[in-house]
Design brief:
Layout lengths: L10 E5 L12 E5 L7 E8 L4 E3 L12 E3 L4 E5 L9 H4 L2 E2 L3 E10 L5 E2 L12
Antiparallel strand pairs: 1-8, 2-3, 2-8, 3-6, 4-5, 6-7, 8-9
Length: 127
């Protein structure tokens, strides 16, 4: 999740008492990896059920013209460091049943402690 978080040496505060249906685009969530159920993963939620998502806007893993509609009960999750991230671009929409929590704040190291802010901007062309 570079640059939001470093690869090691940080501690975060996670809210495990969440209702997955109340998550918003831009939230940082933890979930059980669809590729390895023994691993917990952290990614940014960018697509909610019913959203039309460009599979890979960079065009590195799929043509930038390829889109998917997120099915009911699923979300689209991507890493902030797209070049090094294994995420929904590889394994598709993720079941909300795999989500375990939402990251709230970085608490260690103290020099970089602070709240995770949701600065995601969503453009709704229907309005």
């Amino acid at each position: 999740m570079l640059p939001t978080m470093s690869a090691s040496g940080e501690a975060v505060l996670e809210n495990r008492f969440i209702n997955p249906s109340k998550l918003k685009r831009g939230d940082l969530v933890t979930y059980i990896s669809p590729l390895d159920p023994t691993r917990m993963v952290c990614k940014r939620l960018i697509g909610l059920p019913g959203d039309v998502i460009c599979v890979d806007p960079t065009g590195a893993m799929a043509p930038s013209t390829e889109h998917v509609i997120i099915p009911k009960g699923h979300v689209w999750l991507v890493g902030d460091n797209a070049e090094m991230s294994r995420d929904s671009r590889q394994y598709g929409p993720v079941s909300m049943g795999l989500i375990r929590g939402k990251l709230v704040a970085k608490v260690w190291p103290l020099s970089s402690a602070g709240w995770f802010r949701n600065n995601f901007r969503y453009v709704d062309k229907s309005q």
